[in-house]
Amino acid sequence: MEKEDKRIYVLSKEEPARAVLKMGLPLIAGMFIMVMYNLVDTYFIGLTRDDYQLAAVNLAYPVMMVAIAVSNIVSSGASSMCRMSFQGMGKAQYAFIITFIRQLILYVPLLLLLNRAFGFGGMIWAQTVTEVIMMIVSVILLTRVINKEKSELQEV
Hints:
Helix content is 90%, strand content 0%. The longest helix has 35 residues.
């Protein structure tokens, strides 16, 4: 059974409490890992006995969580939908272009630059910035391809 079929089966055939558990546990695990990251960060900064550094970590944590949420929404949304649309239209080369731009042209250089500037927090910002840029690029590219297809159909 394919991954998409399993999700549809879980949401439609199983009892609601069990379906929520199956679909929600991976999200809960990811959030738990992020909380553990913050706890470890706070522990080591707490060893310095500097209240200002500890306050900075606690103030930055909600911003980091919002960045992760935006990144997850965008990454699982617009750019993925555009890639699947291109594949469904039989234009896999555009899906490849989007993936290539995302990974090699944007994500890797941003990861290196932002990790240097912000430490481990740069990884989160690199993903967020990459996904937002790719959402814009994907939607523009999909719009152009659809408009081109429409104009070709009207000419025939």
